[in-house]
Amino acid sequence: MSYTRSPQNSRPPRGKRPQRFEEAGDPIALLESVGPVETPPDFQSFDELDLSPIMRKAVAEAGFTKPSPIQAALIPHALAGTDVIGQARTGTGKTAAFSIPILEQLDSLEDCRDPQALIIVPTRELADQVAGEAARLAYGLPTEIAVLSGGKNMTKQLRQLENGVQIVVGTPGRVHDHLQRGTLRTNKVWSVVLDEADRMLDIGFRPQIERILRKCPRNRQTLLLSATLPAVVRRLAESYMVQPVVIDCCRNEMAVETIEQRYFTISQERKVELLEKLLKRENPEQAIIFCRTKRGTDRLYRQLSHDYHGACGAMHGDMQQRERDRVLQSLRDRKLKILVATDVVGRGIDITTISHIINFDVPQDCDDYVHRVGRTGRMGRDGVAYTFVVPGEGEVLTSIEQRINKLLIRDTMEGFDAPPPIADEPEKVAEPTETRRSLNPMNRKRKSRR
Protein backbone atom coordinates (compact mmCIF):
# COMPACT_ATOMS: atom_id res chain seq x y z
CA MET A 1 0.00 0.00 0.00
CA SER A 2 1.26 3.46 -0.84
CA TYR A 3 1.33 6.06 1.93
CA THR A 4 1.49 9.23 -0.15
CA ARG A 5 -0.64 12.31 0.19
CA SER A 6 -3.94 12.32 -1.63
CA PRO A 7 -3.94 14.64 -4.68
CA GLN A 8 -5.12 18.09 -3.71
CA ASN A 9 -7.47 18.26 -6.69
CA SER A 10 -9.42 15.36 -5.17
CA ARG A 11 -10.76 17.68 -2.47
CA PRO A 12 -14.43 18.62 -2.78
CA PRO A 13 -14.91 21.66 -5.03
CA ARG A 14 -15.52 24.99 -3.40
CA GLY A 15 -19.10 25.91 -3.84
CA LYS A 16 -21.24 28.60 -2.31
CA ARG A 17 -20.44 29.44 1.25
CA PRO A 18 -23.03 28.05 3.65
CA GLN A 19 -25.36 30.47 5.33
CA ARG A 20 -24.01 32.01 8.50
CA PHE A 21 -24.91 29.92 11.51
CA GLU A 22 -27.44 31.15 14.02
CA GLU A 23 -26.53 31.32 17.67
CA ALA A 24 -28.48 28.77 19.67
CA GLY A 25 -28.60 27.58 23.23
CA ASP A 26 -27.91 23.94 22.32
CA PRO A 27 -24.14 23.37 22.02
CA ILE A 28 -24.68 20.32 19.80
CA ALA A 29 -26.77 22.43 17.41
CA LEU A 30 -23.97 24.98 17.31
CA LEU A 31 -21.48 22.30 16.34
CA GLU A 32 -23.79 20.88 13.67
CA SER A 33 -24.15 24.37 12.20
CA VAL A 34 -20.45 24.20 11.26
CA GLY A 35 -20.36 20.65 9.88
CA PRO A 36 -21.36 17.03 10.53
CA VAL A 37 -20.50 16.05 14.10
CA GLU A 38 -18.77 12.73 14.70
CA THR A 39 -18.04 10.93 17.94
CA PRO A 40 -14.64 9.22 18.24
CA PRO A 41 -14.41 5.49 17.45
CA ASP A 42 -13.17 3.15 20.17
CA PHE A 43 -9.87 1.91 18.77
CA GLN A 44 -7.81 -0.33 21.01
CA SER A 45 -4.55 -0.10 19.07
CA PHE A 46 -2.74 2.07 16.55
CA ASP A 47 -2.72 -1.01 14.31
CA GLU A 48 -6.38 -0.24 13.55
CA LEU A 49 -5.31 3.03 11.90
CA ASP A 50 -3.96 3.13 8.36
CA LEU A 51 -0.39 3.95 9.34
CA SER A 52 2.87 2.94 7.68
CA PRO A 53 5.11 0.40 9.44
CA ILE A 54 7.75 3.05 10.17
CA MET A 55 5.13 5.30 11.81
CA ARG A 56 3.82 2.43 13.91
CA LYS A 57 7.36 1.85 15.10
CA ALA A 58 7.78 5.56 15.90
CA VAL A 59 4.49 5.61 17.83
CA ALA A 60 5.58 2.58 19.87
CA GLU A 61 8.97 4.19 20.49
CA ALA A 62 7.17 7.31 21.78
CA GLY A 63 5.31 5.17 24.32
CA PHE A 64 1.81 5.32 22.79
CA THR A 65 -0.20 2.10 23.05
CA LYS A 66 -3.86 2.99 22.51
CA PRO A 67 -5.12 5.98 20.49
CA SER A 68 -6.87 8.66 22.53
CA PRO A 69 -10.35 9.63 21.30
CA ILE A 70 -9.13 12.70 19.39
CA GLN A 71 -6.35 10.65 17.79
CA ALA A 72 -8.67 7.83 16.75
CA ALA A 73 -11.15 10.27 15.21
CA LEU A 74 -8.87 12.87 13.61
CA ILE A 75 -6.06 10.77 12.04
CA PRO A 76 -8.22 8.94 9.44
CA HIS A 77 -9.86 12.20 8.27
CA ALA A 78 -6.51 14.01 8.14
CA LEU A 79 -4.99 11.19 6.07
CA ALA A 80 -7.94 11.47 3.68
CA GLY A 81 -7.34 15.20 3.14
CA THR A 82 -10.53 16.36 4.85
CA ASP A 83 -10.80 19.64 6.74
CA VAL A 84 -11.37 18.87 10.43
CA ILE A 85 -12.47 20.81 13.51
CA GLY A 86 -11.43 18.91 16.61
CA GLN A 87 -12.83 19.89 19.98
CA ALA A 88 -10.89 18.23 22.77
CA ARG A 89 -9.53 19.13 26.17
CA THR A 90 -5.86 19.79 26.72
CA GLY A 91 -3.83 16.76 27.74
CA THR A 92 -5.66 14.35 25.40
CA GLY A 93 -2.99 13.89 22.74
CA LYS A 94 -4.02 16.58 20.25
CA THR A 95 -0.43 17.24 19.15
CA ALA A 96 0.13 13.65 18.07
CA ALA A 97 -3.32 13.62 16.44
CA PHE A 98 -2.32 16.20 13.83
CA SER A 99 1.43 15.47 13.74
CA ILE A 100 1.10 11.80 12.76
CA PRO A 101 -0.87 12.36 9.51
CA ILE A 102 1.40 15.28 8.53
CA LEU A 103 4.54 13.18 9.02
CA GLU A 104 2.97 10.30 7.09
CA GLN A 105 2.42 12.46 4.01
CA LEU A 106 5.55 14.64 3.87
CA ASP A 107 7.64 14.72 0.71
CA SER A 108 11.36 14.39 1.26
CA LEU A 109 13.51 17.51 1.49
CA GLU A 110 15.15 16.54 -1.83
CA ASP A 111 11.75 16.68 -3.55
CA CYS A 112 10.53 19.87 -1.86
CA ARG A 113 12.64 22.38 0.05
CA ASP A 114 9.76 24.74 0.90
CA PRO A 115 7.48 24.22 3.93
CA GLN A 116 4.71 21.70 3.33
CA ALA A 117 2.91 21.98 6.69
CA LEU A 118 2.33 25.09 8.82
CA ILE A 119 1.34 24.70 12.49
CA ILE A 120 0.21 27.88 14.28
CA VAL A 121 0.10 27.95 18.10
CA PRO A 122 -0.58 30.77 20.61
CA THR A 123 2.62 30.79 22.69
CA ARG A 124 6.37 30.36 22.28
CA GLU A 125 6.50 27.57 24.83
CA LEU A 126 3.80 25.60 23.02
CA ALA A 127 5.66 26.07 19.71
CA ASP A 128 8.77 24.45 21.20
CA GLN A 129 6.69 21.66 22.70
CA VAL A 130 4.82 20.87 19.46
CA ALA A 131 8.06 20.86 17.46
CA GLY A 132 9.64 18.51 19.99
CA GLU A 133 6.69 16.13 19.86
CA ALA A 134 6.71 16.13 16.04
CA ALA A 135 10.44 15.40 16.03
CA ARG A 136 9.88 12.53 18.45
CA LEU A 137 7.20 11.03 16.21
CA ALA A 138 9.49 11.40 13.18
CA TYR A 139 11.73 8.73 14.71
CA GLY A 140 13.55 6.87 11.95
CA LEU A 141 13.04 9.47 9.21
CA PRO A 142 15.07 12.67 8.79
CA THR A 143 12.62 15.57 9.11
CA GLU A 144 13.44 19.27 9.09
CA ILE A 145 11.26 21.26 11.51
CA ALA A 146 11.65 25.01 12.08
CA VAL A 147 10.26 26.92 15.06
CA LEU A 148 9.32 30.53 14.25
CA SER A 149 8.45 32.37 17.45
CA GLY A 150 9.23 35.68 19.08
CA GLY A 151 12.09 36.02 21.50
CA LYS A 152 14.24 33.59 19.48
CA ASN A 153 17.25 34.28 17.26
CA MET A 154 15.98 35.66 13.95
CA THR A 155 19.24 34.87 12.11
CA LYS A 156 18.93 31.19 12.99
CA GLN A 157 15.33 31.13 11.75
CA LEU A 158 16.32 32.78 8.46
CA ARG A 159 19.13 30.27 7.99
CA GLN A 160 16.78 27.33 8.61
CA LEU A 161 14.23 28.60 6.10
CA GLU A 162 16.94 29.22 3.52
CA ASN A 163 18.38 25.71 3.94
CA GLY A 164 14.95 24.15 3.53
CA VAL A 165 12.33 22.87 6.00
CA GLN A 166 9.36 20.52 5.77
CA ILE A 167 7.32 21.64 8.79
CA VAL A 168 7.05 25.13 10.29
CA VAL A 169 5.73 25.54 13.85
CA GLY A 170 5.24 29.14 14.91
CA THR A 171 3.30 31.83 16.70
CA PRO A 172 1.02 34.10 14.63
CA GLY A 173 3.09 37.25 15.12
CA ARG A 174 6.45 35.81 14.07
CA VAL A 175 5.01 33.77 11.16
CA HIS A 176 3.27 36.89 9.89
CA ASP A 177 6.54 38.80 10.26
CA HIS A 178 8.37 36.27 8.06
CA LEU A 179 5.59 36.46 5.46
CA GLN A 180 5.94 40.25 5.31
CA ARG A 181 9.73 39.93 4.95
CA GLY A 182 9.28 37.38 2.17
CA THR A 183 11.45 34.84 4.00
CA LEU A 184 8.64 32.27 4.44
CA ARG A 185 7.28 30.75 1.23
CA THR A 186 3.83 29.16 1.54
CA ASN A 187 3.08 28.18 -2.07
CA LYS A 188 3.85 24.49 -1.32
CA VAL A 189 1.93 24.33 1.98
CA TRP A 190 -0.76 21.64 1.76
CA SER A 191 -1.68 21.42 5.48
CA VAL A 192 -2.37 24.24 7.95
CA VAL A 193 -3.00 23.47 11.63
CA LEU A 194 -4.50 26.01 14.04
CA ASP A 195 -3.81 24.61 17.50
CA GLU A 196 -5.53 26.15 20.54
CA ALA A 197 -7.48 28.33 18.11
CA ASP A 198 -9.78 29.76 20.77
CA ARG A 199 -6.81 31.06 22.76
CA MET A 200 -5.14 32.65 19.71
CA LEU A 201 -8.31 34.50 18.78
CA ASP A 202 -8.98 35.44 22.40
CA ILE A 203 -5.63 37.25 22.73
CA GLY A 204 -6.12 39.23 19.53
CA PHE A 205 -4.33 37.27 16.80
CA ARG A 206 -7.28 37.07 14.42
CA PRO A 207 -5.91 39.63 11.85
CA GLN A 208 -2.56 37.83 11.61
CA ILE A 209 -4.21 34.40 11.36
CA GLU A 210 -6.49 35.52 8.56
CA ARG A 211 -3.58 37.04 6.61
CA ILE A 212 -1.60 33.81 7.03
CA LEU A 213 -4.52 31.71 5.78
CA ARG A 214 -4.99 33.99 2.77
CA LYS A 215 -1.30 33.55 1.89
CA CYS A 216 -1.62 29.74 1.82
CA PRO A 217 -2.97 27.83 -1.23
CA ARG A 218 -6.75 27.70 -1.42
CA ASN A 219 -6.78 23.93 -1.94
CA ARG A 220 -4.89 23.25 1.30
CA GLN A 221 -6.14 21.09 4.13
CA THR A 222 -7.03 22.97 7.35
CA LEU A 223 -7.10 21.32 10.78
CA LEU A 224 -8.50 23.44 13.62
CA LEU A 225 -7.98 22.20 17.18
CA SER A 226 -9.66 23.92 20.11
CA ALA A 227 -10.82 23.08 23.61
CA THR A 228 -13.85 25.36 23.15
CA LEU A 229 -15.72 26.55 20.06
CA PRO A 230 -16.91 30.11 20.72
CA ALA A 231 -18.60 32.12 17.97
CA VAL A 232 -15.37 33.74 16.76
CA VAL A 233 -13.81 30.31 16.13
CA ARG A 234 -16.87 29.06 14.27
CA ARG A 235 -16.87 32.18 12.06
CA LEU A 236 -13.21 31.59 11.23
CA ALA A 237 -14.01 27.99 10.28
CA GLU A 238 -16.94 29.13 8.17
CA SER A 239 -14.74 31.55 6.22
CA TYR A 240 -11.58 29.50 5.69
CA MET A 241 -12.52 25.80 5.79
CA VAL A 242 -14.22 23.58 3.20
CA GLN A 243 -16.99 21.22 4.38
CA PRO A 244 -15.21 20.47 7.68
CA VAL A 245 -15.97 17.44 9.79
CA VAL A 246 -16.49 18.30 13.46
CA ILE A 247 -15.07 15.89 16.04
CA ASP A 248 -16.52 16.38 19.49
CA CYS A 249 -14.47 14.84 22.29
CA CYS A 250 -15.83 17.18 24.99
CA ARG A 251 -19.51 16.27 25.10
CA ASN A 252 -20.71 16.25 28.72
CA GLU A 253 -17.10 16.19 29.83
CA MET A 254 -15.55 19.64 30.16
CA ALA A 255 -13.47 18.74 33.21
CA VAL A 256 -11.06 15.83 33.29
CA GLU A 257 -12.58 13.03 35.34
CA THR A 258 -9.29 12.15 37.00
CA ILE A 259 -8.94 15.66 38.49
CA GLU A 260 -10.33 16.27 41.96
CA GLN A 261 -11.54 19.87 42.11
CA ARG A 262 -11.97 21.73 45.40
CA TYR A 263 -12.25 25.29 46.66
CA PHE A 264 -11.58 27.33 49.80
CA THR A 265 -13.48 30.42 50.89
CA ILE A 266 -10.90 32.81 52.30
CA SER A 267 -10.39 36.52 52.85
CA GLN A 268 -7.92 38.28 50.56
CA GLU A 269 -5.45 39.12 53.33
CA ARG A 270 -5.14 35.48 54.49
CA LYS A 271 -4.57 33.91 51.07
CA VAL A 272 -0.79 33.58 51.42
CA GLU A 273 -1.09 32.05 54.89
CA LEU A 274 -3.62 29.49 53.60
CA LEU A 275 -1.43 28.71 50.60
CA GLU A 276 1.58 27.95 52.77
CA LYS A 277 -0.51 25.63 55.00
CA LEU A 278 -2.03 23.92 51.94
CA LEU A 279 1.36 23.23 50.37
CA LYS A 280 2.59 21.69 53.62
CA ARG A 281 -0.54 19.54 53.89
CA GLU A 282 -0.50 18.33 50.29
CA ASN A 283 3.27 18.14 49.72
CA PRO A 284 2.74 18.10 45.93
CA GLU A 285 5.09 16.37 43.51
CA GLN A 286 4.96 19.54 41.43
CA ALA A 287 2.44 22.37 41.55
CA ILE A 288 1.51 25.38 39.43
CA ILE A 289 0.03 28.36 41.31
CA PHE A 290 -1.91 30.71 39.04
CA CYS A 291 -2.13 34.44 39.72
CA ARG A 292 -4.13 37.04 37.83
CA THR A 293 -1.42 39.69 37.35
CA LYS A 294 2.31 39.81 36.61
CA ARG A 295 2.96 41.96 39.68
CA GLY A 296 1.04 39.57 41.89
CA THR A 297 3.03 36.67 40.44
CA ASP A 298 6.35 38.31 41.30
CA ARG A 299 5.15 39.22 44.79
CA LEU A 300 3.94 35.69 45.60
CA TYR A 301 7.12 34.17 44.13
CA ARG A 302 9.28 36.27 46.48
CA GLN A 303 7.19 35.20 49.48
CA LEU A 304 7.38 31.48 48.62
CA SER A 305 11.08 31.54 47.74
CA HIS A 306 11.99 31.76 51.43
CA ASP A 307 10.49 28.30 52.07
CA TYR A 308 11.43 26.65 48.76
CA HIS A 309 15.08 27.59 48.24
CA GLY A 310 15.87 27.05 44.56
CA ALA A 311 12.78 24.88 44.06
CA CYS A 312 10.37 27.73 43.29
CA GLY A 313 10.11 29.62 40.00
CA ALA A 314 7.99 32.31 38.39
CA MET A 315 6.76 32.88 34.85
CA HIS A 316 4.80 35.64 33.13
CA GLY A 317 4.70 37.57 29.89
CA ASP A 318 7.17 40.31 30.88
CA MET A 319 10.05 37.86 31.33
CA GLN A 320 12.63 37.43 28.59
CA GLN A 321 12.19 34.33 26.45
CA ARG A 322 15.53 32.89 27.55
CA GLU A 323 14.44 33.06 31.20
CA ARG A 324 11.02 31.57 30.41
CA ASP A 325 12.70 28.66 28.60
CA ARG A 326 15.03 28.11 31.55
CA VAL A 327 12.15 28.02 34.04
CA LEU A 328 10.14 25.55 31.95
CA GLN A 329 13.14 23.28 31.45
CA SER A 330 13.79 23.30 35.20
CA LEU A 331 10.17 22.31 35.74
CA ARG A 332 10.48 19.45 33.23
CA ASP A 333 13.73 18.32 34.86
CA ARG A 334 11.95 18.33 38.26
CA LYS A 335 14.36 20.88 39.65
CA LEU A 336 11.37 23.09 40.49
CA LYS A 337 8.62 21.97 42.82
CA ILE A 338 6.53 25.16 42.69
CA LEU A 339 5.84 27.39 39.69
CA VAL A 340 3.99 30.68 40.23
CA ALA A 341 2.60 31.89 36.91
CA THR A 342 0.01 33.85 35.01
CA ASP A 343 -2.18 32.32 32.31
CA VAL A 344 0.84 32.35 29.97
CA VAL A 345 1.29 28.68 30.98
CA GLY A 346 -2.44 27.97 31.06
CA ARG A 347 -2.47 26.49 27.55
CA GLY A 348 -0.73 23.55 26.00
CA ILE A 349 2.16 23.07 28.43
CA ASP A 350 2.44 19.30 28.76
CA ILE A 351 4.31 18.20 31.90
CA THR A 352 2.89 14.94 33.25
CA THR A 353 4.44 15.34 36.70
CA ILE A 354 2.22 18.31 37.64
CA SER A 355 0.13 16.87 40.47
CA HIS A 356 -1.52 20.04 41.83
CA ILE A 357 -3.03 23.20 40.40
CA ILE A 358 -3.82 26.09 42.77
CA ASN A 359 -5.85 29.05 41.57
CA PHE A 360 -4.53 31.67 43.99
CA ASP A 361 -6.69 34.15 42.06
CA VAL A 362 -9.97 32.99 40.55
CA PRO A 363 -9.85 33.27 36.75
CA GLN A 364 -12.40 35.72 35.42
CA ASP A 365 -13.09 33.58 32.36
CA CYS A 366 -14.55 30.10 32.76
CA ASP A 367 -12.54 28.72 29.84
CA ASP A 368 -9.33 29.92 31.51
CA TYR A 369 -10.29 27.79 34.51
CA VAL A 370 -10.72 24.74 32.27
CA HIS A 371 -7.29 25.23 30.75
CA ARG A 372 -5.56 25.97 34.05
CA VAL A 373 -6.96 22.79 35.58
CA GLY A 374 -5.95 20.91 32.43
CA ARG A 375 -2.27 21.34 33.35
CA THR A 376 -2.70 18.41 35.75
CA GLY A 377 -4.31 15.03 35.17
CA ARG A 378 -2.44 14.73 31.85
CA MET A 379 -3.20 11.64 29.73
CA GLY A 380 -5.39 10.05 32.41
CA ARG A 381 -3.16 10.61 35.44
CA ASP A 382 -4.64 11.75 38.74
CA GLY A 383 -4.50 15.40 39.73
CA VAL A 384 -5.92 17.89 42.26
CA ALA A 385 -7.03 21.47 41.67
CA TYR A 386 -7.74 24.03 44.43
CA THR A 387 -9.34 27.45 43.95
CA PHE A 388 -9.23 30.29 46.48
CA VAL A 389 -12.52 32.20 46.49
CA VAL A 390 -12.83 35.50 48.35
CA PRO A 391 -16.15 37.06 49.41
CA GLY A 392 -17.84 38.61 46.39
CA GLU A 393 -16.58 35.98 43.91
CA GLY A 394 -19.42 33.53 44.44
CA GLU A 395 -20.97 34.29 41.05
CA VAL A 396 -17.68 33.52 39.29
CA LEU A 397 -17.50 30.17 41.10
CA THR A 398 -21.07 29.37 40.05
CA SER A 399 -20.26 30.22 36.43
CA ILE A 400 -17.27 27.87 36.51
CA GLU A 401 -19.41 25.05 37.93
CA GLN A 402 -22.01 25.58 35.23
CA ARG A 403 -19.31 25.59 32.56
CA ILE A 404 -17.77 22.27 33.62
CA ASN A 405 -21.13 20.77 34.67
CA LYS A 406 -19.68 19.79 38.01
CA LEU A 407 -19.83 21.11 41.57
CA LEU A 408 -16.51 21.92 43.21
CA ILE A 409 -16.05 20.39 46.67
CA ARG A 410 -15.68 22.84 49.51
CA ASP A 411 -12.51 22.20 51.51
CA THR A 412 -11.58 23.41 54.98
CA MET A 413 -8.38 24.01 56.90
CA GLU A 414 -8.11 24.26 60.68
CA GLY A 415 -7.83 27.88 61.73
CA PHE A 416 -9.28 29.21 58.49
CA ASP A 417 -12.96 29.73 59.00
CA ALA A 418 -14.92 31.09 56.07
CA PRO A 419 -15.11 34.89 56.20
CA PRO A 420 -18.57 36.39 56.60
CA PRO A 421 -20.27 37.35 53.33
CA ILE A 422 -20.11 40.95 52.24
CA ALA A 423 -23.23 42.76 53.43
CA ASP A 424 -24.54 46.16 52.48
CA GLU A 425 -23.70 48.40 55.42
CA PRO A 426 -26.07 51.24 56.28
CA GLU A 427 -24.82 54.56 55.07
CA LYS A 428 -23.08 56.45 57.85
CA VAL A 429 -23.76 60.14 58.34
CA ALA A 430 -20.53 62.01 58.84
CA GLU A 431 -20.42 64.17 61.93
CA PRO A 432 -19.63 67.82 61.27
CA THR A 433 -16.15 68.90 62.25
CA GLU A 434 -14.68 72.31 62.70
CA THR A 435 -11.59 71.70 60.58
CA ARG A 436 -11.61 70.77 56.92
CA ARG A 437 -8.77 69.09 55.09
CA SER A 438 -7.44 71.28 52.31
CA LEU A 439 -6.96 69.54 48.93
CA ASN A 440 -4.29 70.25 46.40
CA PRO A 441 -6.23 71.90 43.54
CA MET A 442 -4.12 69.99 40.96
CA ASN A 443 -5.31 66.65 42.33
CA ARG A 444 -8.98 67.36 42.93
CA LYS A 445 -11.25 64.88 41.19
CA ARG A 446 -14.14 67.17 40.28
CA LYS A 447 -15.89 67.48 36.98
CA SER A 448 -15.27 70.79 35.31
CA ARG A 449 -18.31 73.03 34.96
CA ARG A 450 -19.72 73.67 31.53
TrEMBL record:
Keyword hit for Transcription regulation: no
EC numbers: 3.6.4.13
GO terms assigned for molecular function: ATP binding; hydrolase activity; nucleic acid binding; RNA helicase activity
Biased composition (Polar residues): 1-11
InterPro entries in alphabetical order: DEAD/DEAH_box_helicase_dom (IPR011545), DEAD/DEAH_RhlB (IPR044742), DEAD_box_RNA_helicase (IPR050079), Helicase_ATP-bd (IPR014001), Helicase_C-like (IPR001650), P-loop_NTPase (IPR027417), RNA-helicase_DEAD-box_CS (IPR000629), RNA_helicase_DEAD_Q_motif (IPR014014)
One protein family per Pfam: Helicase_C
Keyword line: ATP-binding, Helicase, Hydrolase, Nucleotide-binding
Composition bias type Basic and acidic residues, residue spans: 425-437
Domain spans labelled DEAD-box RNA helicase Q: 44-72
Helicase C-terminal domain location: 258-420
Family membership noted in the UniProt record: Belongs to the DEAD box helicase family.
Protein name according to UniProt: DEAD-box ATP-dependent RNA helicase CshA
The species this protein was found in: Neorhodopirellula pilleata
